[in-house]
């Protein structure tokens, strides 16, 4: 056996040390320790069930695997590059622990279906972890949205103040995004949860492997039907990375707004010191580093998706060593997303929203110009002419240092007469009620609007959703 390799019977020469290190994946796939142990225990029980192992041998193997698990958890430095990967490290350690009976464990399986099993179990676990982290962030956002359901702030388009909304309404937009992320995680889970063990290297097994038993024991929802596809399929990993990329994009958009809002130019939010850093030369600085890093991780996570798509794009069936490159992007994406979700939840929960500054920005930005146009439409002016009047009113108020609420009624009438040659449209004091900012918000009647009752409907909807997702 070349160099003591478990596969070395065919070989007489030694592996080049550089090639051995290049070939090894243990630095990455040691993250699959618990999945490999669980899969091996289930496999040993199945081997006993079909008569390959005696009861005593199975119990010895299972006890040995649990000892190996504890050993590597407590001493990960004992993982060996010489044993290449997680599977061979465990099998080598098991044989050292219990003797030759450990060599029976690999009966009726290949590393190909073994790694497919481990990887699916890992992605199933990370899918659930991401879902729980999303739900936690949604809960924090919902709490903040409810607390600020009546606090005015500017709504933006093109990063220019556009229309008055409430802070609660704004925060609920991110709840809506996260709800879609959770829905995607739920929807892809059955495709991840397809049990590949029992497929062998690519063509099935000459043993009566009880795959239904394995499915039930390991908690899968279905059995992979085609052996060759089962060992070569990584669609579920790509779906996980694609969903992760969308989720990270949503986190990045929220991070971007926290960064903008915490700047002196906006002053809408004060992030807790725990999530900011200072400058090495400018003592006054409070840099939103955690939000910036969450935003910065986006390129890395997008890259992980492209990484795996590129790896898979030209692989012939069935297994190829290229597939060793599948785990690092998935493990990295899961780790980065879970950290980002938890940090974002903590940041939002501890943030102080500067609602007075938000309200001042609403009052100063002519955000009721659309409401003025809508009022004029209600008086019989065509919308395009009403839009022109409102624009002229904004221009005049801006020149005079006034708000639209401070512009005299006769100015509005003169502008209407100027634009409407028929001079049949008359404005009255109701104009000022129509362009009152709070009144403007309350009059948004469409479903999903910023009106307080609609915000309450959405809060109730998403609270109920949290109980069912």
In words, what does this structure look like?
The chain has 469 residues and is mainly alpha-helical. Helices cover 62% and strands 4% of the residues. The chain has helices spanning 17-23, 26-29, 33-49, 55-74, 86-98, 111-147, 167-192, 211-218, 227-232, 235-261, 289-312, 327-350, 355-363, 369-378, 383-400, 409-419, 430-434, 437-442, 452-468; strands at residues 152-157, 160-166, 194-195, 222-223, 269-270, 352-353. The strands form three sheets. The protein has a two-stranded antiparallel sheet with strand order 1-2. A two-stranded parallel ribbon has the order 3-4. It is elongated and about 100 Å long. The protein starts with 16 loop residues before the first helix and ends with a helix.
Distance between the termini: 52 Å
Compressed to H and E, one letter per element, the order equals HHHHHHEEHEHEHHEHHEHHHHHHH
Beta-strand segment tally: 6
- Low-pLDDT runs: none
Radius of gyration: 31 Å
The DSSP helix count reads 19
> Residue-averaged pLDDT, rounded?
93
Largest sheet: 2 strands, antiparallel
3D shape:
elongated
Our estimate of the beta-strand percent is under 5%
The strands making up the biggest β-sheet line up spatially as 1-2
The SS-based structural class is mainly alpha
Helix content class: 55-70%
């Amino acid at each position: 056996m070349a160099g003591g390799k478990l596969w070395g019977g065919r070989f007489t020469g030694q592996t080049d040390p550089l090639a051995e290190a290049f070939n090894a994946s243990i630095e990455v796939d040691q993250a699959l320790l618990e999945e490999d142990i669980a899969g091996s225990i289930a496999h040993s029980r199945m081997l006993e069930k079909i008569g390959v192992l005696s009861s005593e041998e199975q119990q010895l193997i299972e006890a040995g695997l649990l000892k190996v698990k504890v050993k590597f958890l407590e001493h990960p430095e004992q993982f060996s590059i010489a044993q290449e990967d997680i599977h061979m490290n465990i099998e080598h350690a098991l044989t050292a622990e219990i003797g030759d009976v450990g060599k029976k464990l690999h009966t009726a399986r290949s590393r190909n279906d073994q790694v497919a099993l481990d990887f699916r179990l890992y992605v199933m676990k990370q899918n659930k972890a991401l879902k729980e982290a999303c739900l936690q962030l949604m809960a924090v956002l919902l709490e903040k949205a409810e607390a600020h359901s009546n606090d005015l702030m500017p709504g933006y388009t093109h990063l220019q103040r556009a229309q008055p909304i409430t802070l609660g309404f704004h925060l609920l937009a991110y709840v809506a995004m996260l709800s879609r992320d959770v829905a995607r995680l739920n929807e892809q889970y059955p495709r991840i949860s397809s049990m590949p063990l029992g497929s062998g290297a690519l063509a099935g097994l000459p043993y009566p492997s009880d795959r239904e038993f394995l499915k039930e024991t390991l908690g899968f929802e279905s059995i992979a039907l085609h052996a060759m596809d089962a060992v070569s399929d990584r669609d579920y990993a790509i779906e996980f990375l694609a969903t992760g990329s969308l989720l990270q994009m949503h986190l990045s958009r929220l991070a971007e707004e926290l960064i903008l809002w915490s700047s002196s130019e906006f002053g809408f939010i004060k992030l807790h010191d725990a999530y900011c850093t200072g400058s090495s030369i400018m003592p006054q600085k409070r840099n939103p580093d955690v939000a910036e890093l969450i935003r910065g991780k986006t390129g890395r996570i997008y890259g992980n998706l492209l990484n795996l798509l590129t790896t898979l794009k030209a692989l012939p069936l069935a297994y190829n060593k290229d597939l060793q490159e599948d785990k690092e992007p998935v493990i990295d994406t899961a780790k980065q997303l879970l950290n980002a979700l938890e940090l974002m939840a903590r940041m939002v929960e501890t943030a102080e929203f500067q609602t007075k500054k938000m309200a001042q920005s609403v009052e100063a930005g002519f955000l009721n110009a659309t409401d003025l146009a809508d009022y004029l439409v209600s008086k019989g002016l065509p919308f395009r002419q009403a839009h022109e009047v409102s624009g002229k009113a904004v221009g005049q108020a801006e020149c005079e240092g006034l708000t639209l609420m401070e512009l005299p009624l006769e100015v509005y009438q003169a502008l209407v007469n100027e634009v409407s040659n028929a001079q049949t449209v008359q404005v009255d004091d109701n104009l000022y009620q129509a362009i009152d900012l709070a009144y403007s918000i309350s009059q948004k009647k469409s479903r999903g609007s910023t009106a307080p009752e609609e915000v309450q409907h959405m809060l109730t909807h998403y609270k109920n959703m949290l109980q069912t997702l």
